[in-house]
Amino acid sequence: MTSKSKAGQPPGALFLDAEALYKELLRGVQAMAIPAAHLVGITSGGAWLAERLQVDLGLPGEPGVISSTLHRDDFAQRGLSDGGQTRLPFEVSGSHIILLDDVLFTGRTIRAVLNELFDYGRPERVQLAVLVDRGGRELPIQADFAAARVALPPSQLLALARSAQGAFSFEVEKA
To answer: What is the mean pLDDT of the chain?
Structure first.
């Protein structure tokens, strides 16, 4: 895990080097990928990861993007978000899919995304790779690969950010 103090942060504050974790994710996804695998990123952080991985792995075409919005169990509270729409530029049925997300927490987003994915067909295999697994699962869902595992209080949110130049960083916010 890449965790250290950063200048200007209080002692004991969590600092995750998102770029270093991305390199670890790249190695993990490279080991998981078979020639016919398709990358699918969950909006928005997972989609950013899928875009960059597609290029760095030299995969043809473009990655898929999937939204959890319509299948969330908290849709009544959240409503429609501006998280983007599902776009899967390949045949889902029979495909090997590597699903990408920035942070795995309760498992509810992954459950919603799997429901959305199956609306498009029945994949042969779905594997999950995440940048950070922060524990706190409410559903029996786990990543096949996590670049890091960290513990945060439930009152904090961890989100991937992307600069205009495409560099990744993490933001920690109050829930």
So the answer is: 88
Q: Is the pTM of this model over 0.85?
A: yes
Q: Does 3 sit behind a cis peptide bond, omega within 30 degrees of 0 on the bond before it?
A: no
**Placement of tokens 């409410």 in the chain:** 138
How far is CA 149 from its chain centroid?
14
User: What are 58's strand-pairing partners?
Assistant: none
- What the block records as the tokens of 41 is 């990123």
Can you tell me the distance from the alpha carbon of 115 to that of 70, in angstroms, rounded to the nearest whole number?
A: 9
Q: Look at residue 80 in the predicted model and tell me its pLDDT.
A: 55
Measure the CA–CA gap between 44 and 52, rounded to whole angstroms: 13
Look at residue 78 and give its three-state secondary structure. Answer: helix
Find the DSSP H helices in 43-170: 45-56, 75-78, 108-118
Helix-strand-coil split of the chain, %, nearest 5: 25, 25, 45
Short-list 68, 155, 143, CA closest to 98: 143
3-state DSSP of 49-92? HHHHHHHHCCCCCCCEEECCHHHCCCHHHHCCCCCCCCECCCCC
Report whether pLDDT(3) > 50.
no
